[in-house]
Design a protein that fits this description.
By secondary structure, this protein is mainly beta. The protein has 2 helices and 13 strands, in the order ββββββββαβαββββ. α1 runs parallel beside α2.
């Protein structure tokens, strides 16, 4: 936590970091620039869902809005932190405290499995839970695991991300939610990436004053 109370919820981005199976690996290499003098430039190669990142509707919805088309209020604001540790499948019965919130952060504790063989055997939302959140007014859902969905499905994504008329966002691979109180100020802004289906973010939060 910083002196201002901000907690960094982002995973470090580095060579060799875990990526979702099938996603591009991350790499960074020095890039020489003629005439630059003693300056430093780095060439990056990565996927749009590297590390702590947001998913835009375009990730799973044909003609869904891309990150650069989404309203900025989806990426920041007051948030509710829900502790759902110990539940492999998170159903609506665990989410009652989300009522009235626009942003919900789900603490599964699975960030502690980063880099282990169990990382991608993570807890997930049921489709019914995703529908409950959307019907309760939630438009941004964050989780400290690799995905809001279990293996082989994108059902929760399709519900949570919505469509062009009523979009939402998902923030995945958060960490450190255990350092937060139940209600926080949250921010995780995406790059203004033209036609981006997702984007790495620097996610942060602090207790509401």
């Amino acid at each position: 936590m910083t002196a201002s109370g901000w907690v960094d919820l982002s995973r470090p981005v580095r060579a060799g970091m875990p990526v979702y199976p099938g996603d591009p690996e991350f790499s960074a290499r020095p890039h020489p620039v003629e005439g630059c003098g003693p300056c430093r430039v780095t060439a990056l190669s990565l996927g749009t869902h590297t590390g702590t990142h947001v998913d835009a509707p375009a990730h799973v919805v044909p003609d869904g809005p891309t990150v650069d088309e989404l309203p900025l209020e989806l990426f920041a604001g007051p948030a509710v932190v829900l502790d759902v540790r110990g539940f492999p499948a998170v159903g609506p019965d665990l989410l009652g405290a989300a009522a009235g919130a626009r942003i919900v952060l789900l603490r599964t504790g699975w960030d502690e499995q980063a880099g282990t063989p169990a990382e991608f055997e993570h807890p997930h939302l049921t489709p019914a839970a995703a529908r409950f959140l959307r019907s309760s007014g939630v438009r941004t859902v964050g989780i400290d695991a690799a995905s809001v969905d279990g293996p082989g499905t994108l059902a929760a994504h399709r519900v949570l991300l919505g469509d062009r008329a009523d979009p939402g966002v998902v923030v995945e691979n958060l960490r450190g939610l255990g350092e937060l109180p139940g209600r926080v100020e949250f921010a995780a802004f995406a790059w203004a990436l033209t036609r981006g289906d997702g984007s790495p973010v620097r996610a942060v939060a602090r207790a509401l004053a």
